[in-house]
Amino acid sequence: MNQLHIKKGQPYPLGASSIRSNAINFSMVNNSQDDCGIILYDKKTQTQKRIPFDSSHRLGNICCMTIEGLTAESCEYNYYIGEQILTDTYAKRIYGNEKWGSETPVVSISLNLTGRKQLLYIFHIRTVSFIVFMFVVLPDIPLQK
């Protein structure tokens, strides 16, 4: 990364936005009192740099700064709060895991239970995660008049 100049930022829009050809505004919400900031990843050198939001870059629970000397093509970023690394929820594109692996198998099982009750399980299996969706259809119960 070239020489970076950190300036006061704009609180909105939240997320990262290019404001000039060589400047990016970063803005995030931090509802905690923990330290927070930006982790910049230099695409060229594969290095990273933590830049904290200090008190001069806070407006209530919104932290914002403009970093000059930075282009969207030269780096990637995450936010951090304390020791937790966060993906920008306002990001327009997220890099990483572009190759998702083999086709995901889907298994559906439908069981007929007594009466008109039916239980449906859908097993959605990914490489690590196992998610079960359950739908229960109950019998029609007539309304009392």
What does this structure look like?
This protein has no helices and twelve strands. It has 145 residues and is mostly beta strands. The strands form three sheets. Strands 1, 2, 3, 6 and 7 form a five-stranded antiparallel sheet that branches. The chain has a four-stranded antiparallel sheet with strand order 5-4-8-9, with no helix packed on it.
What is the overall number of helices? 0
- What is the first-to-last residue Cα distance? 75 Å
Shape: globular
Give unreliable regions as ranges. 112-138
Question: What percent of residues adopt helix (DSSP H or I)?
Answer: under 10%
What series of H and E elements makes up the topology?
Answer: EEEEEEEEEEEE
Layout of secondary structure:
Blueprint: E1 5-8, E2 15-20, E3 23-29, E4 36-42, E5 48-52, E6 58-59, E7 62-68, E8 75-81, E9 84-86, E10 106-112, E11 118-125, E12 130-137
Antiparallel strand pairs: 1-7, 2-3, 3-7, 4-5, 4-8, 6-7, 8-9, 10-11, 11-12
What labels would you give this structure?
four-stranded antiparallel sheet; 145 residues; mainly beta; 0% helix; 12 strands
Question: What is the compact description of this entry?
Answer:
With 145 residues, this protein is an all-beta fold. It contains no helices and twelve strands.
